[in-house]
Known about the structure:
Helix content is about 35%, strand content about 25%. The chain is α+β, with helices and mostly antiparallel strands and about 130 residues long.
Amino acid sequence: MRDYAAEITDLQAKMEGRDVRLVITRADFFAAVASPAWRPGVLGYADVALNGIIGDSDYKLRCFVCSEPWAFDRPPCVMVLMEIGALGIERGESLIAAICPHCIYDEDGFQAAIERFFGASHHVLTESDQVGHA
Ligand SMILES: [Zn+2]
């Protein structure tokens, strides 16, 4: 099983103090899965999230905004597809997160989550409404 927490820690270490270009797309689950580039990652994310919800794993994925763990009454609702390019990173990285139904209209919370996640880098954020190619 992928260890998203370790991947995020590694990625944050690579980005710290660097100029980072971000392209972030918020998309519903099926729009994200319909993109061949994102499909494996999104399905993998869904599998790990579901294992945490049904108790097959102690590893819980959480809402990108409020950090509450996924549950049947708090499922991943909107996917957050992040393409990350940074000086000093040879190829772009991508990262998938999701937002719960309680947070989908919390724009301040979303921006705060971006700052919390990418705060140690000098990031330039572009939001796209088209599911791109990771
Ligand atoms: Zn939430």
